Amino acid sequence: MKKFIITISVIIIGACTDISVDPPSFGDDEATVFGDFEGYQAYIAKVYASLTLTGQQGAAGQPDLTVINDEGFSSYLRVWWKAQELTTDEAIIAWQDAGIRDLHNHAWSSDNQFVRVLYYRIFYTISLANDFIRVAESIPDGLTSDEIAEIDRFVAEARFIRAFAYWHALDHFRNVILITSITSDLPSQQDPSDIFDFLITELNEIEDDLFSAGQGNHPYGRLDQGAVWMLKAKLYLNSEVYTGTSRYSDAITEVNKVISSGVYSIHDTYQELFMGDNHLRTNEIIWSIVHDGLVSQTWGGTTTIIRGGIGGAMMDDLQGGVDFPDEALQEYGVPSGWEGYRTTSALVEKFPNAATDPDGNSPDGRAIFFTEGQSLEIDNVAEFEDGYAVPKFNNIESTTGQRAPGVDQVSTDYPVFRLAEAYLILAEAELQESGSISASTLLLLNELRQRAYGDNSGDVTINDVDLDWILDERARELYLEATRRTDLIRHGKFTGGDYIWPWKGGTQEGVSTSSHLDIFPIPASDLIANPKLEQNEGY
């Protein structure tokens, strides 16, 4: 089995809204559950699985959280992706679930259900990691030295996942609590600089305890040092936003570890990084949130990203059914689409010719748009055919041309960190640090451009590369990869009037929005549960 995600049969933490409460105790069963190595292995798998799965029973059933009616909406990756994409120029959605339109309208409040579930999903994962670390403090007699060493590595992986979740807490909510153990005491919020320092300290401490870079495939999907370097680089790149102090030289140091490690390289074909067998692309993909349509089913994750972006004429050949006739699904590898998100003209226009060519074609091969029956401009948000579709992700195996395993759910992994982004972080940090990029960094950028164009016709010069170009190039390379909101905020273009895109602020032409929206509100339900908390300014 190529995937690491498996589910533990014991409910570790109950579905609750007060994130400070103790998880239900294992009681007398704890010694039994963790009496052998397999118990720890199953539990760390649950910690990993919390990043995309939603409960204890297949795609739905016995949900981890009950703060939202539709369990599928509670997937970590699904709510994180929506927060990063639907609030920006890269995605707009036709669905009319309560609060979902508020995301691209920049009109969310502390009662918004999608903001609420993002907050609780983040802290659910943090609580799981905390509890795993607690359990692993008392390893029973009888385990081999190899098993004990592996459990020690599990602890480092749990600490990384906790740091990953805390990065999202810092990025999205800024003024959050810091809990590293299970407690019934009501915690207070910490200064964002303290959260930032905690994360850097944690990542530095666990770096040597993880697999060496490129070796996190035992089995596939486990964390290694490359992921640590990338997360530190992204923290340092955004340090000025988080703490008021820039750390660009530190970002350069971390991505240079990735680039100089010698274990990563740019994959030849861009689209294959987002297909049903992208687990084969570990030369470029540093760490993924893994999915398997047979053994780790979810209505969130990449299932939502793929099926949520299919509609209109794209479904003409989708005949559905579990038998998947040979003539069906050759493009996307799923039984049907959910007619959800499309992109705005602002993204399309970043690719040469894509907005004027009838088929949305561009010499830049990263422009993966579906235009048949779709309009470039969005007159009606509720109509899927308004706006170009963006089938960047699919569930087809590049090696066979057939659908990847699964029926309703997909097997396409979600790349969290890629070497291509390391190149882009390096260029941006150099620009911020010295006002220009180096000649060696220019070669790396043009390596990405040559993959995109198929030749050197898209090459740029050092004089072409400024901060605006980098922001646009990040959109061209990384769209739909949950980076856009953070990127726009870092460049001062998420709120305010310096950058307007269609339907920003809830109007077709787009309007300036208030800067307090750069961070989300603490959910009203958590303010009620914990009177020590203060709401973020502006809400």
Descriptive notes:
It is built from 17 helices and four strands. Strands 1-3 form a two-stranded antiparallel ribbon. Helices cover 37% and strands 3% of the residues. By secondary structure, it is mostly helical.
- Shape call: globular
**Strand-residue proportion:** under 5%
In which range does the helix fraction lie? 25-40%
Quaternary class: single chain
Q: Tell me the number of helical segments per DSSP (H or I, 4 or more residues long).
A: 17
Structural class: mainly alpha
User: How many strand units?
Assistant: 4
Main sheet strand line-up = 1-3
Secondary-structure element order, N to C:
HHHEHHHHHHHEHEHEHHHHH
Low-confidence stretches: 1-28, 320-328
Layout: helices, strands, pairs:
Elements: H1 29-33, H2 37-49, H3 76-85, E1 92-93, H4 101-105, H5 113-135, H6 145-173, H7 192-206, H8 225-237, H9 239-243, H10 248-260, E2 285-289, H11 301-307, E3 341-342, H12 345-348, E4 414-418, H13 419-434, H14 439-453, H15 467-478, H16 484-490, H17 524-529
Antiparallel strand pairs: 1-3, 2-4
Briefly summarize what is shown.
The chain has 17 helices and 4 strands.
Q: Could you list some keywords that capture this structure?
A:
two-stranded antiparallel ribbon, two-stranded antiparallel sheet, mainly alpha, 4 strands, disordered N terminus, globular, 539 residues
